[in-house]
Amino acid sequence: MPANVARQLNPIRWLGGPFLLCALASLILAAPIRVYGLQLPEPVFGLVPAFAWAMIRPSVLPPFALLLLGFYCDWLWGTPTGLWPACLLAAYAPVLMLRNVLAGQSFIAMWIWYACACALAFAVGMYLLTLDSGAVPSLVAVGWQFLVTAALYPLAHSLIERYEDADVRFR
Fold first, then answer.
1. Is residue 44 part of a domain?
2. In whole angstroms, what is the distance from residue 51 CA to residue 115 CA?
């Protein structure tokens, strides 16, 4: 099959595969491994499919997958229950509403939009954590986590490129 032919839009392939890869990558990078005394970065891999799924196709399934992925992140990182589902959905919703504006943008423009969606998710997370704990999280730690997560846009781009033309209803 040629590389430029769109893949069939099977929910197992466009939802299940990225879901499992994000869960596995999060688990691996949450391991207490230190390299030269520094801990591995913990990007929020769930923001990659949150952005890509909103761009690929409007569907009822991605929000539920994001809820599950968010609860998994809450469990894995020990955050208050519901924090990461709220953050992932906060990034997903505006991208879904703006998908017609975003379609056809250049790689760099889409990366900027992805970074904006990540910033919104992190802002929601900081707000909710501040409400929960009464103290503002470390801005340096949040900033580094944001930068590492924003650097993951090429993964979202490859997911969008793989499935963007698969749904014939939107051609």
1. yes
2. 10
